[in-house]
Amino acid sequence: MVKRTASRGANAGKQFWGCSRYPACRGTREILDQVSS
After folding, report:
1. Torsions phi, psi of 26, nearest 5?
2. What value does the mean pLDDT take over residues 19-33?
């Protein structure tokens, strides 16, 4: 998976993990913020 940025729609400007073999693979994952303490 590779980090991508949505270019349109309700999530425009937000980053997400997208399949590196797009369009053959359309899997996506939300990027979760991790805070180390």
Report:
1. -115, 20
2. 91
